[in-house]
Amino acid sequence: MPGTIVITGANSSLAIPAVQHLLTTYPEYTVVLTVRNTTDADVNTKKLRATLAKYPSAKTSIHELDLADLLAVHEFAKVIIDKISSGSLPPLASLICNAYYWNLSGGMETTRDGYEQSFQVNYVAHTVLVLRLLGSFGSDGGRVVLLSSDAHWPGKNGLEKYPPAIPHDLDLLARPAADEDSDKLGRGFQRYAVSKLAVVTWMYALNRYLKMVYRSLEQIPRVSFNYRQDPNLSNITAVAINPGNLTDSRALRTNTPTMLVVVSRVLQLLRPLLRFMDPTMRTSAEAGTDVIDLATKKVYAQERGYFTLLKHDISSPESLNEETQQRLWKKTLQWARITRENTALTEASLQ
Questions:
Q1: What is the reported pTM?
Q2: CA 103, CA 109: separation in Å to the nearest integer?
Q3: What's the pLDDT tens digit per position in 27-48?
Q4: Contact criterion met (CB below 8 Å) for 224 and 183
Q5: Cβ(132)–Cβ(89) below 8 Å
Q6: Which of 151, 162, 158, 328 is nearest to 240 (CA)?
Q7: Per DSSP, what are the bridge partners of residue 176?
Q8: Which residues contact 243 (CB under 8 A, 6 or more apart)?
Q9: Is the separation of the CB atoms in 35 and 62 below 8 Å?
Q10: pLDDT digits (tens, 9 = 90+) for 241-261
Q11: Are 239 and 148 in contact (CB under 8 A)?
Q12: Residue 145 is inside which H or E element, if any?
Protein backbone atom coordinates (compact mmCIF):
# COMPACT_ATOMS: atom_id res chain seq x y z
CA MET A 1 0.00 0.00 0.00
CA PRO A 2 1.50 3.40 -0.99
CA GLY A 3 2.58 5.60 1.86
CA THR A 4 4.95 8.44 2.68
CA ILE A 5 8.62 8.51 1.74
CA VAL A 6 10.91 10.90 3.62
CA ILE A 7 14.21 11.90 1.98
CA THR A 8 16.83 13.99 3.76
CA GLY A 9 19.29 16.13 1.84
CA ALA A 10 16.78 16.25 -0.98
CA ASN A 11 18.62 18.90 -3.00
CA SER A 12 21.84 16.89 -3.31
CA SER A 13 23.41 15.65 -6.53
CA LEU A 14 22.06 12.15 -5.86
CA ALA A 15 18.69 13.16 -4.44
CA ILE A 16 17.36 15.41 -7.21
CA PRO A 17 17.50 12.70 -9.90
CA ALA A 18 16.30 10.22 -7.27
CA VAL A 19 13.21 12.36 -6.66
CA GLN A 20 12.62 12.60 -10.40
CA HIS A 21 12.83 8.82 -10.72
CA LEU A 22 10.49 8.39 -7.75
CA LEU A 23 7.83 10.75 -9.10
CA THR A 24 8.06 9.24 -12.59
CA THR A 25 8.08 5.57 -11.66
CA TYR A 26 6.23 5.49 -8.34
CA PRO A 27 3.80 8.45 -8.46
CA GLU A 28 1.49 6.88 -5.90
CA TYR A 29 3.75 7.84 -2.98
CA THR A 30 3.55 10.99 -0.89
CA VAL A 31 7.04 12.49 -0.70
CA VAL A 32 8.43 14.60 2.15
CA LEU A 33 11.72 16.28 1.26
CA THR A 34 14.09 17.97 3.69
CA VAL A 35 16.76 20.58 3.00
CA ARG A 36 18.73 23.01 5.14
CA ASN A 37 17.50 26.06 3.23
CA THR A 38 14.03 25.99 1.67
CA THR A 39 14.37 29.28 -0.22
CA ASP A 40 15.39 29.76 -3.82
CA ALA A 41 18.45 31.63 -2.56
CA ASP A 42 19.89 28.12 -2.37
CA VAL A 43 20.53 27.25 -6.01
CA ASN A 44 20.18 23.53 -5.29
CA THR A 45 16.81 23.94 -3.58
CA LYS A 46 15.71 26.03 -6.56
CA LYS A 47 16.77 23.14 -8.81
CA LEU A 48 14.80 20.71 -6.64
CA ARG A 49 11.72 22.92 -6.81
CA ALA A 50 12.04 23.11 -10.61
CA THR A 51 12.13 19.31 -10.70
CA LEU A 52 8.95 19.09 -8.62
CA ALA A 53 7.23 21.60 -10.91
CA LYS A 54 7.38 19.01 -13.70
CA TYR A 55 4.96 16.86 -11.67
CA PRO A 56 2.06 19.18 -10.76
CA SER A 57 -0.15 16.33 -9.55
CA ALA A 58 2.54 14.80 -7.31
CA LYS A 59 2.05 14.82 -3.55
CA THR A 60 5.26 16.50 -2.41
CA SER A 61 6.41 18.99 0.21
CA ILE A 62 9.75 20.59 1.11
CA HIS A 63 10.67 21.10 4.76
CA GLU A 64 13.56 22.87 6.43
CA LEU A 65 15.74 20.56 8.50
CA ASP A 66 19.17 21.28 9.92
CA LEU A 67 20.72 17.97 10.93
CA ALA A 68 23.42 19.87 12.82
CA ASP A 69 20.74 20.77 15.40
CA LEU A 70 19.35 17.72 17.23
CA LEU A 71 16.50 19.69 18.80
CA ALA A 72 15.36 20.65 15.29
CA VAL A 73 15.57 17.00 14.23
CA HIS A 74 13.41 15.88 17.16
CA GLU A 75 10.92 18.66 16.40
CA PHE A 76 10.74 17.69 12.73
CA ALA A 77 10.17 14.05 13.67
CA LYS A 78 7.33 15.12 15.97
CA VAL A 79 5.73 17.09 13.12
CA ILE A 80 5.78 14.04 10.86
CA ILE A 81 4.47 11.77 13.64
CA ASP A 82 1.58 14.16 14.30
CA LYS A 83 0.72 14.51 10.60
CA ILE A 84 0.61 10.73 10.18
CA SER A 85 -1.41 10.31 13.39
CA SER A 86 -3.94 12.91 12.21
CA GLY A 87 -4.21 11.38 8.74
CA SER A 88 -2.82 14.39 6.89
CA LEU A 89 0.04 12.15 5.76
CA PRO A 90 -0.24 8.43 5.01
CA PRO A 91 1.91 6.07 7.12
CA LEU A 92 5.59 5.87 6.36
CA ALA A 93 6.71 3.46 3.66
CA SER A 94 10.39 4.43 3.49
CA LEU A 95 12.87 6.70 5.18
CA ILE A 96 15.90 7.57 3.03
CA CYS A 97 18.77 9.02 5.08
CA ASN A 98 20.68 10.69 2.29
CA ALA A 99 21.97 13.99 3.72
CA TYR A 100 25.69 14.22 4.39
CA TYR A 101 28.42 16.62 5.46
CA TRP A 102 32.18 16.67 5.11
CA ASN A 103 34.91 19.26 5.22
CA LEU A 104 38.13 18.27 3.50
CA SER A 105 39.56 21.79 3.31
CA GLY A 106 39.08 23.04 6.87
CA GLY A 107 39.66 21.91 10.41
CA MET A 108 37.34 19.97 12.69
CA GLU A 109 33.94 21.60 13.27
CA THR A 110 31.42 21.07 16.03
CA THR A 111 27.66 21.53 16.07
CA ARG A 112 25.62 23.45 18.61
CA ASP A 113 25.15 20.08 20.32
CA GLY A 114 28.91 19.85 20.80
CA TYR A 115 29.42 16.91 18.44
CA GLU A 116 31.81 16.68 15.51
CA GLN A 117 29.75 17.92 12.57
CA SER A 118 30.30 15.12 10.05
CA PHE A 119 29.49 12.53 12.69
CA GLN A 120 26.31 14.29 13.81
CA VAL A 121 24.93 15.10 10.36
CA ASN A 122 25.80 11.80 8.69
CA TYR A 123 25.06 9.53 11.62
CA VAL A 124 23.59 10.76 14.91
CA ALA A 125 20.86 12.97 13.44
CA HIS A 126 19.69 10.20 11.14
CA THR A 127 19.45 7.75 14.04
CA VAL A 128 17.15 10.27 15.72
CA LEU A 129 14.86 10.32 12.68
CA VAL A 130 14.84 6.54 12.34
CA LEU A 131 14.15 5.77 15.98
CA ARG A 132 11.57 8.53 16.41
CA LEU A 133 9.67 7.55 13.24
CA LEU A 134 9.60 3.75 13.60
CA GLY A 135 6.12 3.90 15.12
CA SER A 136 4.81 5.85 12.12
CA PHE A 137 5.32 3.07 9.58
CA GLY A 138 2.23 1.24 8.39
CA SER A 139 1.28 -2.24 9.56
CA ASP A 140 2.94 -3.66 6.43
CA GLY A 141 6.26 -2.19 7.55
CA GLY A 142 8.65 -0.50 5.22
CA ARG A 143 12.29 0.28 4.60
CA VAL A 144 15.01 2.39 6.16
CA VAL A 145 17.71 3.21 3.60
CA LEU A 146 20.97 4.52 5.05
CA LEU A 147 23.64 5.99 2.79
CA SER A 148 27.08 4.53 3.37
CA SER A 149 30.34 4.46 1.41
CA ASP A 150 33.25 2.18 0.63
CA ALA A 151 35.15 4.63 2.84
CA HIS A 152 33.82 2.79 5.91
CA TRP A 153 36.19 -0.12 5.12
CA PRO A 154 39.85 0.74 5.77
CA GLY A 155 41.91 0.67 2.60
CA LYS A 156 38.99 0.72 0.15
CA ASN A 157 38.91 4.40 -0.82
CA GLY A 158 41.66 6.27 -2.59
CA LEU A 159 41.17 9.41 -0.50
CA GLU A 160 41.98 7.59 2.72
CA LYS A 161 45.18 8.47 4.57
CA TYR A 162 44.08 7.55 8.09
CA PRO A 163 41.84 4.49 8.45
CA PRO A 164 38.44 4.75 10.14
CA ALA A 165 37.92 2.81 13.37
CA ILE A 166 35.54 2.63 16.30
CA PRO A 167 37.54 3.32 19.46
CA HIS A 168 37.08 1.69 22.84
CA ASP A 169 36.04 5.09 24.21
CA LEU A 170 33.00 5.79 22.06
CA ASP A 171 32.82 9.40 23.20
CA LEU A 172 35.80 10.01 20.93
CA LEU A 173 33.52 9.43 17.94
CA ALA A 174 31.24 12.35 18.77
CA ARG A 175 33.90 14.48 20.46
CA PRO A 176 37.24 13.52 18.89
CA ALA A 177 40.53 14.99 20.02
CA ALA A 178 41.91 17.93 18.11
CA ASP A 179 43.85 17.10 14.96
CA GLU A 180 47.50 16.38 15.65
CA ASP A 181 48.60 17.79 12.31
CA SER A 182 47.51 20.19 9.58
CA ASP A 183 46.44 17.52 7.09
CA LYS A 184 42.93 18.88 6.51
CA LEU A 185 42.13 16.56 3.60
CA GLY A 186 43.31 13.40 5.34
CA ARG A 187 41.73 14.16 8.72
CA GLY A 188 38.53 15.49 7.20
CA PHE A 189 38.10 12.37 5.12
CA GLN A 190 38.82 10.19 8.14
CA ARG A 191 35.99 11.91 10.05
CA TYR A 192 33.65 11.30 7.11
CA ALA A 193 34.73 7.65 6.88
CA VAL A 194 34.21 7.14 10.62
CA SER A 195 30.66 8.45 10.31
CA LYS A 196 29.95 5.96 7.52
CA LEU A 197 31.47 3.13 9.55
CA ALA A 198 29.11 4.05 12.37
CA VAL A 199 26.15 4.02 9.97
CA VAL A 200 26.88 0.48 8.79
CA THR A 201 27.68 -0.86 12.25
CA TRP A 202 24.51 0.60 13.79
CA MET A 203 22.36 -0.72 10.93
CA TYR A 204 23.02 -4.32 12.00
CA ALA A 205 21.97 -3.62 15.58
CA LEU A 206 18.83 -1.84 14.36
CA ASN A 207 17.83 -4.85 12.28
CA ARG A 208 18.26 -7.16 15.25
CA TYR A 209 16.04 -4.96 17.41
CA LEU A 210 13.41 -4.76 14.67
CA LYS A 211 13.42 -8.52 14.21
CA MET A 212 13.59 -9.11 17.97
CA VAL A 213 16.02 -11.96 17.30
CA TYR A 214 19.09 -11.95 19.49
CA ARG A 215 21.69 -14.38 20.56
CA SER A 216 21.93 -15.34 24.18
CA LEU A 217 23.37 -13.08 26.83
CA GLU A 218 26.41 -15.36 27.04
CA GLN A 219 27.21 -14.84 23.36
CA ILE A 220 27.12 -11.04 23.54
CA PRO A 221 28.73 -10.01 26.85
CA ARG A 222 27.53 -7.06 28.95
CA VAL A 223 24.27 -6.81 26.99
CA SER A 224 20.81 -6.95 28.52
CA PHE A 225 17.61 -7.08 26.47
CA ASN A 226 13.89 -6.79 27.01
CA TYR A 227 11.69 -7.77 24.09
CA ARG A 228 8.23 -6.28 24.59
CA GLN A 229 7.45 -4.08 21.57
CA ASP A 230 5.08 -3.69 18.63
CA PRO A 231 5.33 -6.90 16.53
CA ASN A 232 4.74 -4.84 13.38
CA LEU A 233 8.25 -3.47 13.74
CA SER A 234 9.56 -6.79 12.47
CA ASN A 235 8.15 -5.81 9.06
CA ILE A 236 10.54 -2.84 8.88
CA THR A 237 13.92 -3.56 7.31
CA ALA A 238 17.09 -1.50 7.24
CA VAL A 239 19.79 -1.44 4.59
CA ALA A 240 22.99 0.57 4.18
CA ILE A 241 23.96 1.22 0.59
CA ASN A 242 27.28 2.22 -0.91
CA PRO A 243 25.89 4.10 -3.92
CA GLY A 244 29.24 4.13 -5.71
CA ASN A 245 31.90 6.69 -6.58
CA LEU A 246 29.86 9.49 -8.09
CA THR A 247 32.27 11.41 -10.26
CA ASP A 248 29.75 14.16 -11.09
CA SER A 249 28.70 14.78 -7.49
CA ARG A 250 29.10 18.33 -6.28
CA ALA A 251 30.37 16.79 -3.03
CA LEU A 252 33.75 16.67 -4.77
CA ARG A 253 33.56 20.44 -5.23
CA THR A 254 32.17 21.38 -1.80
CA ASN A 255 34.52 21.93 1.16
CA THR A 256 37.30 20.30 -0.83
CA PRO A 257 40.77 21.47 -1.90
CA THR A 258 41.33 22.72 -5.45
CA MET A 259 43.25 19.57 -6.26
CA LEU A 260 40.17 17.42 -5.66
CA VAL A 261 37.99 19.72 -7.76
CA VAL A 262 40.41 19.27 -10.67
CA VAL A 263 40.57 15.51 -10.15
CA SER A 264 36.77 15.30 -10.17
CA ARG A 265 36.64 16.93 -13.60
CA VAL A 266 39.21 14.51 -14.96
CA LEU A 267 37.28 11.56 -13.48
CA GLN A 268 34.12 12.73 -15.22
CA LEU A 269 35.90 12.69 -18.56
CA LEU A 270 37.45 9.26 -17.93
CA ARG A 271 34.40 7.67 -16.29
CA PRO A 272 33.33 5.58 -19.33
CA LEU A 273 36.75 3.94 -19.31
CA LEU A 274 37.21 3.75 -15.57
CA ARG A 275 33.95 1.93 -14.99
CA PHE A 276 35.22 -1.05 -16.96
CA MET A 277 37.75 -1.54 -14.16
CA ASP A 278 35.51 -0.28 -11.37
CA PRO A 279 31.73 -0.53 -11.90
CA THR A 280 31.13 1.75 -8.93
CA MET A 281 32.41 4.69 -11.02
CA ARG A 282 29.11 6.16 -12.15
CA THR A 283 26.77 9.13 -12.16
CA SER A 284 24.66 10.56 -9.37
CA ALA A 285 21.53 9.88 -11.42
CA GLU A 286 22.36 6.17 -11.63
CA ALA A 287 22.91 6.04 -7.89
CA GLY A 288 19.69 7.94 -7.22
CA THR A 289 17.71 5.42 -9.23
CA ASP A 290 19.17 2.56 -7.22
CA VAL A 291 18.40 4.24 -3.90
CA ILE A 292 14.75 4.75 -4.86
CA ASP A 293 14.38 1.21 -6.19
CA LEU A 294 15.91 -0.19 -3.00
CA ALA A 295 13.42 1.86 -0.99
CA THR A 296 10.33 0.92 -2.99
CA LYS A 297 10.58 -2.26 -5.07
CA LYS A 298 8.90 -5.34 -3.64
CA VAL A 299 11.87 -7.49 -4.58
CA TYR A 300 13.85 -5.73 -1.84
CA ALA A 301 11.07 -5.76 0.76
CA GLN A 302 12.72 -8.26 3.11
CA GLU A 303 16.33 -7.37 2.38
CA ARG A 304 18.53 -6.34 5.28
CA GLY A 305 22.20 -5.53 5.52
CA TYR A 306 24.86 -3.90 3.39
CA PHE A 307 24.62 -3.25 -0.35
CA THR A 308 27.10 -2.10 -2.96
CA LEU A 309 24.94 -0.58 -5.68
CA LEU A 310 21.98 -3.02 -5.77
CA LYS A 311 23.99 -6.10 -4.84
CA HIS A 312 24.00 -7.54 -1.34
CA ASP A 313 27.57 -7.28 -0.13
CA ILE A 314 29.84 -7.87 2.85
CA SER A 315 30.74 -4.84 4.96
CA SER A 316 33.99 -4.27 6.84
CA PRO A 317 35.08 -6.75 9.52
CA GLU A 318 34.76 -4.15 12.29
CA SER A 319 31.18 -3.32 11.30
CA LEU A 320 30.29 -7.02 11.63
CA ASN A 321 31.48 -7.32 15.24
CA GLU A 322 28.31 -7.83 17.27
CA GLU A 323 29.72 -6.55 20.53
CA THR A 324 30.87 -3.37 18.79
CA GLN A 325 27.43 -3.04 17.20
CA GLN A 326 25.75 -3.28 20.58
CA ARG A 327 28.13 -0.87 22.33
CA LEU A 328 27.54 1.67 19.56
CA TRP A 329 23.77 1.11 19.70
CA LYS A 330 23.55 1.87 23.40
CA LYS A 331 25.84 4.90 23.19
CA THR A 332 23.91 6.25 20.22
CA LEU A 333 20.70 6.23 22.24
CA GLN A 334 22.41 8.68 24.58
CA TRP A 335 23.80 10.91 21.83
CA ALA A 336 20.44 10.94 20.05
CA ARG A 337 18.45 11.54 23.27
CA ILE A 338 16.22 8.57 22.63
CA THR A 339 14.18 7.31 25.56
CA ARG A 340 11.39 4.82 26.12
CA GLU A 341 8.95 7.70 25.73
CA ASN A 342 9.97 8.80 22.23
CA THR A 343 10.54 5.60 20.25
CA ALA A 344 8.45 2.58 19.38
CA LEU A 345 11.37 0.42 20.53
CA THR A 346 10.02 0.83 24.05
CA GLU A 347 12.52 -1.51 25.66
CA ALA A 348 15.60 -0.19 23.89
CA SER A 349 16.54 1.61 27.08
CA LEU A 350 19.70 3.30 28.23
CA GLN A 351 20.11 0.89 31.10
A1: 0.93
A2: 8
A3: 999 999 999 999 999 999 999 9
A4: no
A5: no
A6: 151
A7: none
A8: 14, 147, 287, 290, 291, 309
A9: yes
A10: 999 999 899 998 999 999 888
A11: no
A12: strand 142-147
